[in-house]
Amino acid sequence: MITFTVGCLFFTKLRKKARRGLTAKEVGSQLIEDIARYQMHPDCETLLCFVYDPEGLIGNPAGIENDLSKDDGNIKVRVYIRPED
Description:
This protein is of the alpha/beta class. 28% of the residues lie in helices and 38% in strands. It starts with a strand and ends with a strand.
């Protein structure tokens, strides 16, 4: 995990790598836990989650990205699973 602080903006980039045996459901669950943890941080305004999946092991990556990316006024979350098909 890499964390950057710029002025009063707290920006966090979270990196994960897909591996055999790790299902799309498990990746989604891990990201949901990470998002919940950073959402509680009072200074965290933006969270970028990057999942490196060079072998295309995660089914429906666009669905996971769309389901977990949000901007609810409290925290802006963007999820990217790459490389894409």
